[in-house]
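Q&A log
Question type: sequence-to-structure
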Amino acid sequence: MDKRIDLLEAIRSIAVKTPMNDIEVPEKVVGFGTIEYKAQTCSACKKCILACEPGALDMDSTLNMPDYVRATVPMEGFRSKNRETLVTLLQSLKQDYNFGDVLAVSVPEGLAGYGSIDWSAEQCIACEKCIEACPENCLTLKKVYKLPEIVGEIEAVPVKRTEKDWEPFIICFVCWECSHAAADLAGLMHLSYPATIRTVRIPCSGALEPIHIMTAMAQGADGVLVTGCLLHECHYGGDSPKAGNFMQYDFVKFWSDIFEEIGIGGRLYIDFASAAMGIKFAEIVETFTEQIRKLGPSPIPVKSEVQE
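Response status: OK
Response body:
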């Protein structure tokens, strides 16, 4: 959980505008999503809560009446016949009585089988253990990340002026096997590309974690470039869909969408080059650098520490 807390704090620290939309999570990206809860079928057994290691679920001792009154009972009925009877009874009462402004009713202490599940977007790691533990099938994982709920309101930062002699500062993560060799080859070939990039060598593009990208941005990078082996030729997985570069491609797409929502869109990019592609590596760097030049300096306020 410490890693998740650090990641959430990092997202908030680089956000320069309040996000308005939830983010779709690519299929290969694990650890992020939204738990959807069907209160109508829940028997408040708490098995999901016991199965949730990060503590993202809790029991609320209320019943949200609209969940029951507006429920649609399937043709085959609910798994729990007691709950089906309750929903049907409440719906029949609704025809004759008006609940008015009553949205939730309290469950008396000690009354088993009733209550509502509270879910925390901050703590959830989308492990699906709660779903596996639920005997009533009332929990599902939706591949959507509730970014506005995670980040909250952001105070707009002043727009930075572009200095006359400003050049983009770009962190480029290169994989040990291929793109690092491509960068070396570009140098040996005396190819010209912007000298403002700083390469950071990693074992595989798939080994790069989001916190590394966030840290680079928080410490003053105007953009982050991720490079790896050619797709289908990863040294750690070959052409498997679970190869490092395939997985990182989806992760970068996910984080690029998040960056767009929090005001730093276009500053993260991924591309691929084999060890023999010095020319392509130089082209990748040049293209991304031009993109950052058009965007201008990073709007993220850099927190500098003064040491005495």
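Response note: Residues 38-118 form one domain.
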